[in-house]
Structures are given as C-alpha cells and as structure tokens.
C-alpha cells in the first residue's frame, strides 16, 4: 500500500473514531442532562400544584375530581406534560388526561415514599406507558398528607428529543469528517511533494545507501543550510577539517573554516564553483561548491566537496612519473634498437668476439648497478626506487652516484616504507630538476645512505644553482617553488611532512663546490633524533 493511501486511511480512521466517540459521549451526556432537567421540572410542577389552595379545598368536597381535573388540565397543556394525576391517600385518581382513568387506582407502585412525606423523581411504567415522574405529597393545613400529585413525561417523548439532537450530531460529525478528509488529502499531498513522491521504505534505503557512499568517499563533503549551520559532514571532512565529533558540527567554533570554504557566497549567487583552491587550517584544499536548489529554484543550502591539494599532487606526481617512465622506455627502445643493429652488423661481419664483448659490457653495467644497490639496500621497495632513479638519471644524462659506503641493511619494521619512499623519491627528483636547471654547475648527483644504531641518515647532494639565502626558509612551504612551472612546489613540502611523521629532522646547506646538500635524520627506535645527530656529528669530527 502506498504511503499516500496509508496516510489517508490512518488519519481518516482516527478522525472517524474521534467523531464517533465524541458523538456517543455527547448523546449520553445529553440523555442524562435531559432526564435530570425534565425530572426536576416535573417535580417543581407537582409541588406548585400541591400548594394550590383550590386543590387542598377540593379534597373536602363530595366530588373532588369535578373541581381538580379542570384546574390541572390547563397546567398540563401549558407545561407539555404527558399527564398530571392527583390522587388521594388510597391512590384513587382525581385527575387524568384520559377521563376514563379518573376514579381508578394509580399505577406504578411508587407512592409509598410520597405518602411517607417525601418528594421523589421516579422512572416507571404507568397507564400511558414508560415515563419519568415527579411526585410530591399534598398536605392539609395541619401538615398531614391527604393526597399525592404526579406530573409525568413519557420516555418516548424524551427519546424523540434525543434523536433530534442525534441527527444534528450526525450531520455535524459528517461535516467534520468531510473537512478532515479534505485536510488529510492536502496534508498527504504536501508530504508527498516534500519527500519527492518517495515511499518511506525507499527513503530508508536511500538513507542507508547515502550513508554508505559518504563513508566510502575519500573526498570531504560538508553541507550547510541557509542559516550557516552544518547539516552533514562525512568522516573524511571531519578528518581534513580537524573535527573530532558530531558535537562540533553546531558549536559555532568553526566559522573560520566555513568562511574559507565560501559556501555563503555560493548560496548568495546560486552559482556552482569547481576546482577552486583555498587554505583551511593550514591545509591547501581543492574545493567544489554547489548550491542546493528547491523545487521553486530557491537556494536551500550548499554542499562543498574538497580534497587535500597534496594528495592530488601525489597523484599528479605519480602520473608524471608514469609519463617519464614511458618516455624513458621509448628512449631505451630507440637506444637498444641501435645496439641491436650494431650486434646484427657485427654478426654479419663475422666479428663474433666483438659482438660477445659488447653484449657482456652492456649486461655487466646493468647487473653491477642492480647488485650494488641490492647489496647496500636489501629492502626491495627502497632498492627498486634507487635502481629506477639511476636508470631515470641515465636517460636524462645525469650522473647519479651512490656512495659505496652507503647501507640500509637493517631497517626497523617501525619505519613506514611508503614515507621513506616519499622522502628519497622527492629529494632525488628535486636534485635532478636542480642540475637540469639553468645555472647548474654540473649534472651530477651523489647520494649517501647511512645507518648508525638507532639513526638513519639520508644525504642528497646536487651540483645545481643552489638556493638563495633569502629563499632558504621558504623551500619547505606548500606551493612554493623556484621553478615557474605547474604542479611544482609540493615535493619538499611532502618530504618535510613525511619526515615529521617519522619524528625526524630535515635540513639543507650550500655545497662549497656549488649546489645544495639536503640531510634527513630519522630515528629507528626510542632514541631521539637529537641524540643520534650529536653522536653522528662526533663521529664525523673524529
């Protein structure tokens, strides 16, 4: 059953039940009030007749009925009573609407209390049928009970009055029900429009799906209303913005980064913005901002999706490396094609020994490089990186040498290899860019990898143009670069970030022979970098 129909039936049934309950209650209250009012009126009329001097005097006459009946009949017609009966102590009627009943005994059996001097209201069956009576005694001048006055209204007349009111109640209830159904239809229609015609089951499923999607997305997503209050933030957004819990979403302490995301401007203009860079909490973010539009095309809020610029740079850097690798493979293909032609020519000239010597020399170069690196750095990830950089340097006609005394043989398992790769890879890339830049002294790079007890040492020395003193403190800033090229200015920043995550230090100094030396020190155990650095400096001095 559709939600629209279910809502209509539920609200209609509830309204009908309330109307029926109120109608029955009102009828019962009306019946009780009407019986009480008629009973009281009957008793008061009876008391008024009992006090009439003419009635008392007629009891001493030879034919009381001759005097009493003409006196009470006009009163009965005036009060619209069904009957007014006056009887003596023996219960013989002196008056009655039916003349044939005059002189006969009163029926109903409720005169005992009246003859005892009490005034009563009773409901019993008389000669005209079931009725409601008010009875009171007639007293002589001495106060003795000499007769009784009974004023009655038939129950069927009371029931007719109640039925008249019941018809009105039914009509009023039917009108209220119709108005309620129309109102329910309008409410159901408005609710349906508000939830875009979706069923509750669909809404629940969509909520679960959207929650799972937001949890899985690696981009931060924040939604705000027109009042600037955050209505949604996924875990990635909480992490990037430094929020620690849901209580932070509405505590008003994060207006600064909300202002940095510029969602208010998007809500004011109603125009989406894509791939905009901004700084929030010291982090460079790439932000997409989109206004939330209602059905009437009015802005009801805004959504921002964002990602750390450094992560995008890492992806771009990886793509650049893939492109460089492809270019290197293309260059190697061309080079090896020439070498294969040379070997083929030597064979055709039957210079077999020269061909063998040439092949051996080529193989020895590559094998010796691989063997040397794997001997110094048994770790396959770090060794593979160094071997790849050596090949890349060869393709770029750069002399990249690794100090023969280098060794990374016993790396601690606590050292994150991915962070170490970021450090080495970016320092070597930075050095290759430096020696390829205008003003470089020579296209030479030397690397030293040292391991002293609990300390790792990485030195990358280049013969580039060097770093001006006025820029020495800015080289680790995010986005800063001396190269006027896109996607630069993040390498050394990522290195510094990785070093800090490994609780190490990084420094750089000018090379007396020209160029720059970058030095990274990383602790492997509980020993601090400062302690290891002091011991390293002492060993260098000795």
Into which percentage range does the β-strand content fall?
Answer: 15-25%
Low-confidence stretches: 526-533
Mean pLDDT: 79
Question: SSE order, as H and E?
Answer: HHHEHEEEHHEEHHHEEEHHHEHEEHEEH
Strand order of the largest sheet: 6-5-9-8-7
What is the number of strand segments?
Answer: 14
Helix content: 40-55%
Write down the Rg. 54 Å
Number of helices: 15
Main sheet summary: 5 strands, antiparallel
Distance between the termini: 89 Å
C-alpha geometry: rod-shaped
Pairing-aware structural class of the strands and helices? alpha+beta
Textual characterization of the structure:
With 542 residues, this protein is an alpha+beta fold. The protein is 51% helix and 20% strand. The strands form 3 sheets. It has a 5-stranded antiparallel sheet. A 5-stranded mixed sheet has the order 10-11-12-14-13, sandwiched between helices. A 4-stranded antiparallel sheet has the order 1-4-3-2. The chain is rod-shaped. The two termini are 89 Å apart. Residues 526-533 have low confidence and may be disordered.
């Amino acid at each position: 059953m559709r939600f629209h129909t279910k809502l209509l039936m539920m609200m209609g049934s509830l309204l009908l039940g309330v109307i029926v309950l109120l109608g029955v209650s009102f009828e019962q209250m009306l019946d009780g009030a009407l019986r009480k009012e008629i009973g009281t009126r009957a008793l008061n009329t009876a008391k008024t007749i009992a006090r009439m001097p003419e009635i008392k005097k007629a009891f001493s006459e030879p034919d009381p009925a001759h005097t009493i009946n003409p006196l009470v009949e006009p009163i009965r017609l005036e009060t619209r009573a069904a009957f007014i009966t006056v009887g003596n102590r023996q219960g013989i009627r002196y008056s009655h609407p039916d003349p044939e009943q005059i002189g006969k005994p009163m029926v109903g059996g409720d005169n005992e209390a009246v003859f005892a001097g009490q005034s009563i209201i009773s409901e019993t069956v008389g000669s005209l049928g079931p009725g409601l009576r008010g009875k009171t005694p007639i007293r002589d001048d001495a106060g003795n009970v000499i007769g009784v006055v009974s004023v009655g209204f038939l129950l069927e007349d009371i029931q007719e009055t109640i039925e008249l009111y019941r018809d009105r109640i039914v009509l009023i209830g039917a009108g209220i029900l119709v108005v309620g159904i129309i109102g329910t239809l309008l409410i159901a229609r408005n609710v349906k429009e508000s939830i875009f015609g979706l069923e509750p089951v669909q809404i629940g499923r969509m909520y679960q799906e959207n929650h799972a999607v937001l949890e899985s997305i690696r981009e931060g997503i924040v939604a705000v209303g027109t009042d600037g209050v955050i209505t949604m933030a996924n875990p990635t957004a909480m992490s990037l913005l430094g929020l620690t819990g849901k209580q932070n979403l509405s505590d008003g302490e994060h207006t600064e980064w909300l202002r940095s995301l510029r969602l208010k401007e998007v809500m004011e203009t109603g125009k989406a913005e894509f791939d905009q860079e901004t700084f929030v909490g010291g982090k460079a973010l790439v932000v997409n901002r989109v206004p939330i539009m209602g059905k009437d095309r009015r802005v009801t809020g805004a959504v921002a999706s964002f990602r750390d610029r450094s992560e995008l740079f890492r992806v771009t850097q990886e793509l650049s490396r893939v492109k460089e690798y492809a270019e290197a493979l293309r260059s190697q293909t061309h080079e090896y094609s020439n070498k294969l032609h040379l070997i083929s020519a030597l064979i055709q000239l039957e210079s077999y020994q020269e061909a063998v010597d040439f092949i051996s020399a080529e193989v020895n170069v590559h094998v010796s490089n691989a063997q040397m690196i794997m001997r110094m750095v048994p770790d396959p990830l770090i060794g593979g990186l160094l071997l790849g950089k050596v090949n890349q340097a060869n393709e770029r006609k750069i002399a990249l040498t690794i100090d023969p005394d280098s060794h990374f043989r016993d790396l601690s398992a606590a050292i994150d290899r991915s962070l170490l790769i970021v450090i080495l890879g970016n320092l070597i890339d930075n050095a290759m860019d430096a020696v390829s830049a205008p003003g470089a002294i020579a296209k030479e790079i030397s690397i030293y990898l040292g391991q002293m007890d609990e300390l790792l040492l990485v030195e990358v020395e280049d013969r580039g143009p060097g770093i001006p003193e006025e820029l020495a403190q800015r080289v680790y800033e995010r986005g800063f670069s001396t190269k006027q090229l896109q996607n630069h200015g993040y390498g050394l920043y990522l290195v510094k970030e990785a070093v800090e995550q490994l609780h190490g230090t990084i420094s750089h100094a000018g090379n007396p022979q020209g160029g720059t030396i970058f030095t990274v020190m990383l602790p492997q155990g509980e020993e601090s970098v400062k302690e290891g650095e002091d011991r390293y400096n002492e060993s260098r001095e000795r």
